[in-house]
Amino acid sequence: MKWQAQAPANIALIKYMGKTEYATNQPANASFSYTLNHLTTRVELELGETSDRWEPLTPKTRLSPAQQARFLNHLNRIKTHFGFNGHFIVRSANNFPAGCGLASSASSFAALTKASVIALAALTQQSIDFAILTTLSRQGSGSSCRSLLDGWVLWDNNGIQPVDLPYPHLSHCVLIVDRKEKSISSSHAHEAVLSSLLFDGRPKRAALRLDQLITALKTSDWRLAYETTWHEFWDMHSLFETASPTFSYLTPQSLTLLRHIQDFWTREGDGPLVTMDAGPNIHLLFRPDQIQLRHQLLGGLPGTIDVFSSGSQ
Ligand code: PMV
Q1: Who contacts 124 (Cβ-Cβ below 8 Å, separation ≥6)?
Q2: 185 CA to middle of ligand 1, Å?
């Protein structure tokens, strides 16, 4: 008997950074994301014998021992929720190449939560509602709860909810500056930012930008949306740069590319939304009518740069 589920990644435009409660990943501020349906993780569960174990679902899939342990730990959490004592073989794979610098924890933990809940609901004859599903997913990786909904998603004190806004179909790509697994995990970043003197006003700034971004999208003010998301990722990276001890994800190449995109916006009066997660890679979101402009921007990037987009595989 096998149970399967799949879930997409998401990119936050208002960032979840800093927690008020660690065990349940209670965020210090509301966050807001766009679901990336072209980047997915697939998880399959099969009943096993003596202990839980992870296996690759496709030959190219790799997970480090630490990542496997984190995955199985989350499975265990869900088994405990259902009061289940049996064991599983967990198989997973992403539809995007491993080690291309794309954060996959949101899609992985959302897919694992969905597959586990499907399996355990069937095996224990229990059902859970959507709110519990999101709470469970969030305990594996906070940002994974936003991957349980499509389109624009808000995660605040009331849980997650879809937000009906213009631009439901954006095209996404990532400028890959570094393919390596990041040396400072987002879990570490969530704790470390609290040591920055700038963290004091952070929840307020994030809330103001959330309002501003939703207003910008509602009124189709793309430039204001760009400016808001630009300020927002710099705010998060400023927390990293001013933490004690300080840490950084930005590389000289990230900075060159950011400057290039900023100059492009100044020259053309238009461009993509730009954001960065806890890593050196740069995420771009284009409106459907920006195909030509996207071509122009990506064709003129300085140096040799890998671009991963929906059409890359
Ligand atoms: O879900 P986590 O614990 O990996 O945290 C994700 C944090 C960021 O990606 C930097 C921001 C976000 O909101 O996704």
Answers
A1: 82, 83, 84
A2: 10
Q: Is the CB of 29 under 6 A from ligand 1?
A: no
Strands 273-275 and 171-176: unpaired
Dig out the tokens for 86 from the structure. 């049996």
**In angstroms, what is the span from residue 49 Cα to ligand 1's centroid?**
34
Provide the pLDDT confidence category of residue 313 given band limits of 50, 70 and 90: very low
* Tens of pLDDT, residues 132-171: 999 999 999 999 999 999 999 999 999 999 999 999 999 9
The pLDDT of 78-107, averaged and rounded, is 89
For residue 8, give every residue at least 6 positions away whose Cβ sits within 8 Å of its Cβ, in sequence order, or none.
35, 36, 37, 38, 39, 40, 107, 110, 147, 150
Quote the CA–CA distance of 202 and 244 in Å, as a whole number.
16
Instruction: Point out the ligand 1 atom lying closest to the alpha carbon of residue 25.
Output: 3
Dihedral class, residue 229 (left if φ above 0, else alpha if ψ from -120 to 50, else beta): alpha
Which among 284, 261, 266 is positioned nearest to 274, based on CA atoms? 284
Sign of CA pseudo-dihedral 104, 265, 236, 179? positive
Ligand 1 proximity of 278 Cβ (cutoff 6 Å): yes
CB of 141 sitting under 6 A from ligand 1: yes
Strand (E) or helix (H) holding 261: helix 252-268
Q: Is the Cβ atom of 171 under 6 angstroms away from ligand 1?
A: no
Find out whether 107 and 8 touch, Cβ atoms under 8 Å: yes
pTM value > 0.85:
yes
> In angstroms, what is the span from residue 181 Cα to ligand 1's centroid?
15
CA distance 85 to 182: 34
The answer to whether 90 and 45 are in contact (CB under 8 A) is yes
For ligand 1, say whether the CB of 139 is within 6 Å of any of its atoms: no
Per-residue model confidence (pLDDT) at position 311: 55
* Cα 75 to Cα 267: distance, rounded to the nearest angstrom: 50
